Amino acid sequence: MKLIKYISILFVFTLFSCGDDYLEKYPLDAPSDQTFLLTAEEMEVGVNNVYRGLIWLWNWENVHTVPALDYGTDLGMRRPSGSYPFPWTYGAHDATTGFFKDAWTKFYRSIERANYIIEKLPLGKENVTEEFYNRIMAEALWHRAFHYMYLTELFGDVPWVETVMWDYEEAYSLVRESKSTIVNNILTDLDFCIANLPASWGGEDYGRISSVAAAGLKARIALYNGMYDVAAQAAQTAMQSDIQLSSNYEGLFSYDTYQVPENLVVVQYLEEFVTHGFPLIAGSRNLKGWGVFQPSVSLADSYVCTDGLSIAESPLFDPRNPYENRDSRMKATLLTHGQWFANLLFDVYDEDGDGKDKTLQINASGDTVSIKNQDFHKPGVIKTASGYYQKKGVAEVDILDNLVAKSRTPTILMRYAEVLLTYAEAKFELGQFDQSVADATINVIRDRVGLPGINVGEHSSNELQALIRNERKVELALEGFRYFDIKRWKTAEHIMNNNYVIGRIQKDVVVDIYQNGFEMPRPTFDEYGISHYPNEQDLFEKIPLEYVFDPARDYLWPIPQTEREVVPTLTQNPGY
């Protein structure tokens, strides 16, 4: 039995499967403060419950919120029909927006679970070995740091709570602690985690937090807060482990991804207890999906050609066959026109102008048959408005087994590739990005997918920064990093302010390309890495998404109004 597969129900499951002596010691609604966490078994059960906090499923859509945040950036969109996109992307949010309250509650509930272990663990310290005690404490501290990272990145200054709030009067008088103080606190905690967690786990413990994951989290937090020396040192600590990149990029996001050493923190699911609906929300209409999440043209354009040059520069780029001779991560991340996936030909362009009412599918008998092409004929943005769907993290087995609403495919929250990218960026910001750093980080990542490495001496400082940031964009695309990256780079106000988003190539232009030899112009890329086309409104369908980002307000979310009504000592962020 793999640990994290059962993590969301393990605490309750263990409680009711360990005999009458456990039922005598535990009230039905909560563990007893006097008798719990006295033995190694109880400590194990208690810290297992803390892992529940890694599961953050988003309301009715039932998808993990962290990777979904990328669809509130330039990497994709949540289509504007039915329920509107993320409210903070178009300036319609305020302190009463329910999503912020849900996030605040989720993080503090997870912190409370960790705090319970941290506070009560000393009760049984004499009953276990020091090594075991420190390991359990380290697991709890890691989880608390993980949730405080998101709280501080999203809300800024927040209350620092390091014990269980038994006294309601104390809870009602909480004040916001500075982000810098909280960051320093959790970085110190992570030092303890690095020192007291094993570098890897095996057997039934596979999936627990390791010292490498602790170093990776420390590196991420330090990078997010501009502490580049700390970020580089923490990343280097992780790089000194035996962890290596997987040889197969696409395989990282399969149903069996929890078994891949590169994936350092993974949320696993179990069909009988907790699943998610990402293939339903993000999937093709022809594959039983709703197509709510759709990657952007700008993301697709960010993947370089196999010679390492952008599509604005490379002689290998063919506008008539734009998905050939490209970084293989593109087709591993995006479902593109002409790909076969889950026995379906993804066909979104009417090349001969005949209406494109059919596409091809391999049926249960193995025969290739024609079916109605819903990806082309659905009205407006209900079809694929951008011309792409997400492939990364959507397992064919979930579609073929008719489990699009009950997917068991894991959600990856940390990969070793992120550690390498953190080291590269931190060293660049420190003025220490040389060829040895490039070869140990970005060039290793590019080599995995068959791309040539970066020759540092051939690029200016601005060009190197753009290369490092684009590598981070495409390697970690749709995994939940972009929203935080464009905020910390202070580029969100430039990237997320526009009146529309370009979508698929217009039908008459497609016919002109394939019937009359018209060649689509190449894009140019601005200083923020966003592609632009000449006369793009004449070439592409216009998606009516208005992005609004107020730099005086939107770098932070508002403190939820309901929290401030209960705890009047909480101040509000600027602009709300």
TrEMBL record:
GO cellular component, one term: cell outer membrane
Residue ranges of domain SusD-like N-terminal in the record: 98-223
Coiled-coil parts of chain: none
Intracellular or extracellular location(s): Cell outer membrane
SUPFAM superfamilies linked to this entry: TPR-like
Main subcellular localisation: membrane
Statement: the UniProt record of this protein carries the keyword Signal: yes
Record-linked InterPro entries: SusD-like_N, SusD_RagB_dom, TPR-like_helical_dom_sf
Domain RagB/SusD: 284-576
Signal among keywords: yes
PROSITE patterns documented for this protein: PROKAR_LIPOPROTEIN (PS51257)
Keyword vocabulary terms for this entry: Cell outer membrane, Membrane, Signal
Database matches in Pfam families: SusD-like_3 (PF14322), SusD_RagB (PF07980)
Family recorded in the similarity comment: Belongs to the SusD family.
Protein name, entry field: Starch-binding associating with outer membrane
